[in-house]
Each structure stands twice: as C-alpha cells, then as structure tokens.
Amino acid sequence: VSVFALGALSAQQPRSGWDGLYSDAQAKRGQALYAANCIACHGTEQGTPKGPAIVGPAFAARWQRKPIQELFDFVQTKMPYNSPGGLSRTQNADVIAFMIQQSHAPGGPNDFVPPPLDGGPAPSSARGLPFYTEQQATRGRIAFEQNCARCHSTQKNTQKLETLNKPHMGFELNGAMALSFGTPFLDRIYLGQPVYPSVFYLYEKMQAMPAFNTQSITQQMRADIIAHILKQNDFPAGNEELRPDPEAMKQMMLNERGFERLFNGKDFAGMKWLLGDACDAPPNGCGKTDPSIVARVEDGKIVCACNIHGYWYSEKTYKDFDLRLQQRFIKPAEWSDSEDDELFFPGGGILLFIYGGDKVWPKTIEVELRWHDLGDIFPFAGKNIKFTYDHAAKVRAARSPWVWHEIRVVSKNGRVDSYLNGQLISTITEHDFPAGYVGMQVEGTPTEWRNIRIKDLSNEEKSAAR
Ligand code: HEC
Ligand code: HEC
Q1: From the centroid of its chain, how far is CA 15?
Q2: Cβ partners under 8 Å of residue 402, min gap 6
Q3: Cα 299 from chain centre
Q4: Looking at ligand 2, which atom is closest to the CA of residue 147?
Q5: Distance in Å, CA 112 to ligand 1 centroid
Q6: Mean pLDDT, residues 429-456
Q7: pLDDT by residue (tens digit) across 229-279?
Q8: Which among 79, 87, 90, 100 is the best mutation to test ligand 1's pocket, defined by most ligand atoms within 8 Å of the CB?
Q9: 163 or 403, greater pLDDT
C-alpha cells in the first residue's frame, strides 16, 4: 500500500495541489461557461440525478491530489457528456479554474494554462501535427454520414498498408472506390509518391465530391469532413479549426511523422535573428535581433525584404536532421518577361551546423540558393569538406525563381543530401562540423519562405532504441 493512498487520514494535510493554480479573473470566465455547459447535469455542491457534483468538498476529495492534467484530460475528452470535446482547451481550463475556486482553493496571480497537447513537445511519435478540433471532427462525422456514407466509409481499415499500395490503389474495389477513408488511408504511397502529401490534395479531390452534386455541400463542410477523416487516421486534435483555406492547407503535411515547425506560420516565435553586415551580436556588436526590420509574417509565410544582410537560425541545435521548407524569390518590378531567369543572381542560402559565436557570418556550411548554382555547397569554415553537386539535376528540378520550390536537406551520419523538388542535387560526403543551429541567410534579395519544418533524426533513433 502506498503511503499516498492514506493521505486522506492525515490531519495536517499538505496544502492542496490546487492552491494558487488559477486566477480569479479566469474563474469568472469559467463561471459563465459552467452555467452554459455543465450546470444542467452537475448542478452545484449536491450534483443532480444527471451527474455528480463537480464543485465543493466531495469533488475536491476525489481529485485534488491527482495531477491536474488528469482532471483536464478527463474533461477535455469526456465532457460535456452529450458532446465530448465540445469546449476548446482554453475554455475547459477556464471551467476548471471555476470548479477549483468553488471547491475552496485560493487563486493566484496567473491563469491555469492547459497542459500542452499530447503531453508536451515530443512530436516524434505523433502521427502528425494537430490541424483540427474535436468539435469540428464531430461536425464532420455528421456531414460525412449525410453526404458521403452512401458510397464511402471512414471505418479504420484492417488492411496492411502494403495491400493498400498495390495498383488500383490496392483497395478491394467497389467500382473505383476506396472502401474506407479510415487509417491507413492517409499513409498511402502510390508509384513512389504519397497520394495525399498535404491536406490540400485531399481537399482538391473532394471538390469532385459528393458524386450526386458537387455543389450540394459548402467548403466549410469539406473542411469539417477532412477533420473527421484526420481523426479516423489518428491525427491528434488541437486548438484550432481547419479552415477551408487552400494556401494554409498546402502547409499541413500528411506524410511527415515526427516533424515540428521551425516557423509556426503566425509569428517569429522560436526563430532567432542576427542582422547587420559583419556585425557581432549585441550588446557588444552592431548586430540587431529584431526580425521586423527585414521581414514580416503574412498569410502563413515569411515575407522578407532582406534589406540588411544577416541570418535567422533555430533555437535548438541539430546534427542528424531532415529539414524541409518552401521558398521563392519575389520578382523585381523591373525584371520583365524578356529577361533570362537563369541569369537571376539572388543572395540566399540554407545554413547548416551554425556555431562558433554570434556574428555575421558564423561558422557554417551553406547550401546555396543562388539561382544558377542552386543547391551547391559553400563551406564558411571547416577542413576537408568534400561534396558533389549535380548541376544537370538542378536544371531538371528547378521551375522558375518566382514559384515555390520545395527544398529538403537531410543530414545523417556525417553525410548531407540536398534535394530540390524531390531530386537529389548535392551531397556532402565528408565534413567535420559538430551539431549546430540550422538557419537561412538574409542576403539582400526579397524572398518568401513558408512551411519550414524539421525532424530531429538523432532523437528518433534514441527513442526507437528505448
Ligand atoms: C448531459 C449531462 C452532462 C453534462 C452537460 C456535463 N456532464 Fe460531466 N458528467 C456527467 C456524468 C453522467 C458524469 C459521470 C459519468 C462518468 O463518470 O463517466 C460526469 C462526470 C464528470 C466529471 C467527473 C466527476 C467525478 O468526480 O468523477 C467531471 C470532472 C465532469 N463531468 C465535468 C464536466 C464539465 C466541466 C462539464 C461542462 C463543460 C460537464 N461535465 C458537462 C454528465 C454531464
Ligand atoms: C454516389 C456515390 C458517392 C458519393 C455520395 C460520394 N462519393 Fe466520393 N467517390 C465516389 C466514387 C465513384 C469515387 C471513385 C472515383 C473518383 O475518384 O472520382 C470516389 C472517390 C472519392 C475519394 C478518393 C478516394 C481515394 O481513393 O483516395 C474521396 C476522398 C472521396 N470520394 C470523398 C468523398 C466525400 C468527402 C464525399 C461526401 C462529401 C463523397 N466522396 C461522396 C462516389 C461517391
């Protein structure tokens, strides 16, 4: 028997784990939500025949010695009883603040902040990032039943992925139809390509549906149905609804387990900047760290005037990693159609293994984003760096400087492969760099970046070994 199980007997009980956990302002917000969503079943300190008391001493006795996360998870996933997940995480945090206050635990200066999704920043094991809310998936299930269930289902498949991947997309075919859109539907690779690399492609396919009249449902309903399909493919729910916004959907990757975002699409949180030609970092040097002097966030992308040379870099250091991003250059007004795009000579590059003091420029190896030799390798430091560059592959893979290019850099066991639109164009076969930050140059040419994401491959190995 654990001593903790006897805690209730103790006369000098430790202070409640709830003391100071919430603010009174938050409890006040929670009161209104409680009245609207919980009181009908849970009443006050006596409860009702429809639900037990969730305020007052009896409730406190059951819950206050457990980690608050347990209570939060219970409410988030199981309540309200008749529409689980109906409240957002923030709303549930407010309701819990009110419940704790009504159970006579004193407040403090700070709000109770809901614990991070999936138990914190351990995205490597997750199916993918959260793109929808529970409530939206519930709406989507209903819309699916009404508009799609005649011909499709979203039962989770029992077939193995390999079976699904066979020609004709491997489903037991009924006409040309997938039997079900449940997992592993979104894992399908066909002819070496994911069938739906991002939410966007699924959304576009759904423009041709439902078969009886494609105009019988709204784009919002399509987004809701996708939320339901994501849920049936074990994607986690989050705080924000999936909006029927194709540009945003292009950045929601479906076949990328374990990636995290270096740029969150909203602000510069988690990205560090050092700007100023030949400057050291402040306070001693002339360097500036405020990104707003060169760049802004607009529609989920970074729009960089890049007028002051320097670079941005990650908060964490990486040695073995898979870095993916999209970039395009902003076409200068004077660059008319008769100019030769091949001769466009922008500045820019991806910086790997950045270390050795905060200055412009740091010790790093650059993957060039200059147009004519895009993907070539330029070491700023280090000895015995060997690499190969396939210019013909670059020419085949490149589109035009003004359209989005997908760039990928994979560092693994001392080797670094760089890809442009899926084609391998350069390989560093030998280098002596330690782990460092990853980043990108700000080098005078107006540029846009979006969908910057990374997977730490060394972490993945450690957790796989456990
Ligand atoms: C339609 C009725 C209903 C509504 C509305 C409802 N609940 Fe419940 N709730 C229940 C029932 C019934 C139980 C007990 C069932 C169980 O334990 O699984 C319960 C259990 C709970 C418990 C666990 C109680 C304990 O001590 O074990 C918590 C906490 C809770 N509800 C919170 C909430 C919150 C917060 C809301 C409003 C956001 C809410 N509920 C809305 C019916 C409801
Ligand atoms: C009357 C029957 C019918 C209805 C209703 C219908 N579909 Fe389809 N669906 C089909 C057929 C037939 C195909 C295969 C041919 C094709 O791909 O166009 C298909 C294919 C699809 C695919 C591609 C499956 C794959 O293998 O990747 C998706 C996604 C899809 N439908 C979504 C929906 C959604 C969402 C709805 C409801 C809004 C819906 N469909 C309603 C008949 C239907």
Answers
A1: 38
A2: 328, 329, 330, 331, 341
A3: 16
A4: 37
A5: 20
A6: 95
A7: 999 999 999 999 999 999 999 999 999 988 999 999 999 999 999 999 999
A8: 79
A9: 403
